[in-house]
């Protein structure tokens, strides 16, 4: 539906069908002229943990009519969604306040792996909050896109480095677990050697 002049009213007409669709996993509502009412409807497609299956990928790029109240509501839904893996919010005027809410949502989410915040009016203040989140809280996040914001390249690089460190640690742990499962007779304690 990307780029269609859907508006909140159009989404309200589609919402009943979307909410009962048995296999809807990706939804692109970028540049659809949505506002806060549309975001409220979308939050219903991100059910809380275990409630029912929901979206795994959501694109809401370029919907400048959404206010910080609407983005705050979305952040809460993302924090409690057990399904969402990819969230694209690029080219929305989010600013630092909304970025702070999103950082809390990402820190709470056990599933969100990709967050696109390109061109969203963020500054180093947002980057420091996001850096703190990545540095100090375990998260599933693997990709955070911050291009075209007023964020120093150094901060962007620090965040990127920390995200790739997490990937490397996970891969190492997965290999170790696989090795132990395949070779249960390998002693993990070197005292018996």
From TrEMBL:
Location of region: Disordered: 163-193
| Alphabetical list of InterPro entries matching this protein | Leu-rich_rpt, LRR-containing_regulator, LRR_dom_sf
Indicate, by first and last residue, each region the UniProt record lists as having compositional bias (Acidic residues).
164-173
Signal peptide range equals: none
Compositionally biased, Basic and acidic residues: which spans?
A: 174-183
Secreted among keywords: no
Q: Which UniProt keywords apply?
A: Repeat
Cited SUPFAM superfamilies: RNI-like
Query: PANTHER family this protein is in?
Result: LEUCINE-RICH REPEAT-CONTAINING PROTEIN 34, LEUCINE-RICH REPEAT-CONTAINING PROTEIN 73
Name of the protein this chain belongs to: LRC73 protein
| Originating organism | Geococcyx californianus (Greater roadrunner)
Species classification: Eukaryota, Metazoa, Chordata, Craniata, Vertebrata
């Amino acid at each position: 539906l990307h780029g269609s002049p859907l508006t909140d009213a159009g989404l309200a007409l589609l919402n009943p069908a979307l909410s009962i669709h048995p296999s809807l996993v990706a939804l692109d509502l970028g540049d659809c002229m949505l506002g806060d009412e549309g975001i409220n409807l979308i939050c219903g497609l991100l059910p809380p943990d275990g409630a029912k299956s929901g979206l795994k990928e959501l694109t809401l790029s370029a919907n400048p009519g959404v206010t910080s109240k609407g983005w705050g509501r979305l952040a809460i839904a993302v924090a409690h969604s057990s399904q969402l893996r990819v969230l694209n919010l690029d080219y929305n005027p989010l600013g630092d306040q909304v970025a702070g809410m999103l950082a809390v949502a990402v820190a709470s989410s056990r599933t969100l792996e990709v967050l696109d915040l390109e061109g969203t009016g963020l500054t180093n203040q947002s980057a420091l909050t996001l850096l703190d989140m990545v540095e100090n809280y375990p998260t599933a996040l693997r990709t955070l896109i911050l291009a075209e914001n007023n964020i120093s390249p150094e901060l962007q690089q620090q965040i990127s480095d920390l995200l790739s460190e997490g990937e490397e640690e996970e891969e190492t742990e997965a290999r170790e677990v696989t090795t132990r499962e395949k070779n249960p007779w390998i002693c993990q304690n070197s005292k018996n050697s």
